[in-house]
Amino acid sequence: MKHIADAFKRDKALIAYICAGDPTPDATTKIVHALIRAGADLIELGLPFSDPIADGPTIQAASQRSLQAGMNPDLFFDLVKTLPKTIPYAVMTYYNLIFHRGTMTFAKDCRNHGIAGIIVPDLPPEEADELGEACKKYNLDLIHFIAPTTTPERIERIIQSSSGFIYLVARLGVTGAREDLEDRTKSLIQQVHTDIPKAVGFGISNPQQAKEIINAGADGIIVGSAIVDMIARNTDDINKAVEEIETLTRKLKEGITR
Amino acid sequence: MENNKKSKFGKYGGQFVPEVLMPALYELEESYKKYKEDPQFIAELHDYRSNFAGRPTPLYHARRLSKEYGITVYLKREDLVHGGAHKLNNTIGQTLLAKYMGKKRIIAETGAGQHGTAAAMAASSIGIPSEIYMGAKDIKRQEMNVYRMKLLGAKVHTVTSGSQTLKDAINEAMRDWATNVETTFYVLGSIVGPHPYPAMVHDFQSIIGNEAKAQILEKEGRLPDSIIACTGGGSNAMGIFHPFLNEDVELYAIEAGGSGLKTTKTAALHSASLCVGEDGVLHGARTKILQDKYGQILESSSIAPGLDYAGVGPELSRLVDCGRVIADNIQDFEALEAFHELSQLEGIIPALESSHAVAYLKKADDLGDLVIINVSGRGDKDLNTVMDRGI
Ligand SMILES: Cc1ncc(COP(=O)(O)O)c(C=O)c1O
After folding, report:
1. Burial of B242 (0-12, 13-18, 19+ CB in 10 A)
2. H-state helical runs in chain A
3. What is the ipTM of this complex?
4. Across chain B, what does the average pLDDT equal?
5. Which of A247, B47, B99, B231 has its CA 20 to 30 A from that of B165?
6. Burial A142-161 (b: 16+ CB within 10 A, else e)
7. Distance between CA atoms of residues B48 and B37, nearest Å
8. Rounded CA gap, B169 and B158, in Å?
9. In percent, how much of chain B has pLDDT > 90?
10. Which residue positions are annotated as catalytic (chain A) (predicted)?
11. Do A31 and A239 form a contact (C-beta atoms < 8 A)?
């Protein structure tokens, strides 16, 4: 099984987010294969939660589609088990699903099914002791966030408790594709000094933004809503979604390698 | 990172929010600590409470109701607070704090429209723009309050995600807050959410209990045997319970039993999180919540939109676990009966939320001889709902 760190070893990392089971588990499998073909270095699989407070309309709708099609944590782990392990995977979900399953059980299930990292948008470091222990026990990375509002001394403390990579939040607010890039995103990247890889997400949708972020000193970019939008537009023709996603992913990858 | 112990009520509470909001929670905690001791803030709050909200509210001896049940029943008249519910006690406090903190805008969620109305009232009197998030389902059943909020100058956002009720309105308000956190103050409507909200709202609402305690001592020369309050998030309940926690008084938190304590695959037919909810994390706090076997939040249900919520304040979860507060529930039909009963026996039309507390008189085994019911709001907003069901 690959580790999160492997994604950052060769080159700048392209991290792709999709919601598992959106619109079906089979579609997820096809999309994952396409992402890998197109050069994704790490895949974040969303385990959908009923009340995703950190997500904008695109990922809310994806979660809804997936839940309606019957996705649940058991099926999620079954699905992950079948995915190719040529790249590492992280699960992105909200804390109640982890808490309810039991932090130890959840971490163990991740380890046994091929998930190398856990990303929880509603779990700040202050509340992460229990899951942190579980991750340590099962050799998983618990990914922490740094936001534009994070104070310098918090940044230091978050770096201290981080492993795998640090998720830099590009803008205030929730997930959702945007065309522009804020100046403060670049200054945030420059403010975070660490050997742990820094990946930037929230609002990244095109190769130009991706390139600028890498030039500003990031080690990776995270693209979610732009990919999920392609699924949303093509729920009855998944092959078309797969094609569009593969093309976008290639372009993003080019944007960060050249 | 160090766990913030003071953010907890036993194992409940905490700050389960996105990183982008954490600095704002610290800022809020600091500012609240500072201004609650600030003489000017205290004086201004007092002025709004007395001359704008209309406090103190009476403690009324409900003679005919008392006779009906063969005990002495007092009503704490929060229905007489400006706006028609206890909600203004809290919104005045938080909105004033927003002003002292230099925030440019307040946002709020609302279920029944009572908190939204109270937030809009506080905002226009204090002079800050307000925007209110409300579920589409609630907008339909509380038309009058939607219109009131607009009249008061608030912008009302219809929330169409999820179950389109209070829980989804909170989700959407939190998303707005994350986007505009530097300029915006989130005025939360109950003792829910991340620390310091449960503690702060508890403080602002404790005025209910502080008044009631002095009033009952004056009128009866002793403390009551029981206090009954309806419980959605739990702010009117904690507000009246608080000064009695260390006294020999039974405290009853009455939740919405809806159409019975059953659940379907994705929905509970009730909102009784204290009675049958399980330990979980929702809207920034660990507390008792209604959830399925995987931890997905269930839709809740109640005839009273202000009680229609899948969670409850962390402080109440703790007080119920340790046996200090007794949780029970009242079904829709019982609340409707009580709505009519109080209207006809006492000339007071209670909110459907408060009707749950009133209905407990009939359901309870033994409340003792002297009881206070917190009438958290008036029922004018519910007339459409009740008319649809017929008298
Ligand atoms: C009249 C009234 N009572 C009670 C409630 C429930 O809230 P809480 O449990 O926080 O008092 C509401 C909420 O809108 C309300 O409008």
Report:
1. buried
2. 25-37, 57-68, 73-81, 95-101, 103-113, 129-137, 152-160, 183-191, 207-215, 225-233, 238-257
3. 0.97
4. 96
5. B99
6. bbbbbbbbbeeebbebbbee
7. 17
8. 8
9. 93
10. 44 (proton acceptor), 55 (proton acceptor)
11. no
Residue B331 sits in the same domain as residue B376 = yes
B85 Cβ closer than 6 Å to some ligand 1 atom: yes
| Amino acid at site B152 | L
What residues in B contact A185, CB-CB < 8 Å?
none
Q: Which of A50, A58, A129 to mutate to test the interface with B (most CBs of B within 10 A)?
A: A50
Q: Which residues of A touch B279 (CB under 8 A)?
A: 99
Q: Is the same domain home to B97 and B74? A: no
- Domains of chain A (ranges; CATH) run 4-257 (3.20.20.70)
Prediction pTM value: 0.96
For residue B20, the chain A residues in CB contact (below 8 A) are 145, 147-150, 169, 172-173
A172 with B2: Cβ contact below 8 A? no
Give the model confidence (pLDDT) of B80-132 as tens digits: 999 999 999 999 999 999 999 999 999 999 998 999 999 999 999 999 999 99
Q: Is the dihedral of CA B366, B370, B374, B378 positive or negative?
A: positive
Query: Is B299 part of any domain?
Result: yes
Is the minimum distance from the CB of B231 to ligand 1 under 6 angstroms?
yes
Q: Which helix (H) or strand (E) holds B186?
A: strand B184-186
Query: B166 and B302 share a domain?
Result: no
Considering the domain architecture, whether residues B79 and B93 belong to the same structural domain is answered as no
| Inside any domain, residue B1 | no
Is residue B172 assigned to a domain? yes
CA nearest B182 in A: which residue?
A: A149
Ligand 1 mutation target, pool B88, B146, B190, most atoms within 8 A of CB: B190
Strand partners, B105: B184
Same domain, B174 and B296: no
Ligand 1 atom closest to Cα of B307? 6
Last residue of one domain, picked from the residues B167, B197, B227: B197
**What sign does the CA torsion over B282, B288, B294, B300 have?**
negative
Counting every residue, how long is chain B? 391
Ligand 1, residue B112: give the atom nearest the CA: 14
Residue B4 falls inside a structural domain: no
Bridging pattern class, strands B8-9 and B12-13: antiparallel
- Closest-approach residue (CA) in chain B for A161: B1
What digits encode the pLDDT tens for the residues A180-211? 888 899 999 999 999 999 999 999 999 999 99
Q: Cα–Cα distance between B377 and B357 in angstroms, integer? A: 11
Structure tokens at B359: 């209905």
Measured between alpha carbons, how far is B142 from A139 in angstroms, rounded to an integer? 52
Are both B249 and B174 inside the same structural domain?
no
- Per-residue pLDDT tens digits for B276-319: 999 999 999 999 999 999 999 999 999 999 999 999 999 999 99
**Cβ contact A127–B294 (<8 Å):** no
On whether both B254 and B367 belong to a single domain, the answer is: yes
Structure tokens at B94: 């938080």
Give yes or no: residues B185 and B77 share one domain.
no
Q: Are the beta carbons of B15 and A144 separated by less than 8 Å?
A: no
Q: Whose CA is nearest to atom 12 of ligand 1?
A: B306
Q: Whose CA is closest to A194, among A221, A160, A146, A145? A: A160
Domain that holds residue B128: 15-50+87-197
Picking from B93, B79, B377, B125, the residue whose alpha carbon sits closest to that of residue B207 is B93
